[in-house]
Amino acid sequence: MSILMDAYGNLLTDKQKNIMDLYYNCDLSLGEIAEHTDTTRQAVYDIIRRCHKILFQYEEKLSLAKQKMKLEEVKKNILRDLDLLENSSNEELVNNMKRYIVDNI
Amino acid sequence: MSILMDAYGNLLTDKQKNIMDLYYNCDLSLGEIAEHTDTTRQAVYDIIRRCHKILFQYEEKLSLAKQKMKLEEVKKNILRDLDLLENSSNEELVNNMKRYIVDNI
Fold it and tell me: Which of A62, A85, A98 sits opposite B94 (nearest CB)?
């Protein structure tokens, strides 16, 4: 949910973003958020459920979270290869890295 | 427009996508598209204008096109450094690459 919020949070309204932030980042309960935002527990619950739906719909169409996780893996792998390269440079490894970058980034 | 369509095309309706594709990729005129899709030239014009607005609004909020262009540059720079590395491996270059990757991907 945190990755989805990073990717699509800007597409939510300020109110939706605020409630999702209080729930997922500040770890408040539905009741505490209701009190904090001057609304009902049920309304907070409905907003969170609606946000889930919105975020998953965007992910289904744009796959940003999936791409982000893939890029993180690419980054990790490049850095790992560069660590190897630092100690024993060789042509094969460099060529593998190149292919990997071309195929993945 | 092509980068924006790549990034956010899936958020348009099939009809919108089709018209944008005919206009930008198949290079048809408004009149030709109107004939092809059994509608009026004005309707085609309005749809294209509306799509522009939608695509730019998404870009304003998600910056996918901007990120994509940045990643292309990162990729180009990594590949250029690897070319150098292939001929004369040295520690400084490898460390520069690492910093570059960590800061940019």
Answer: A85
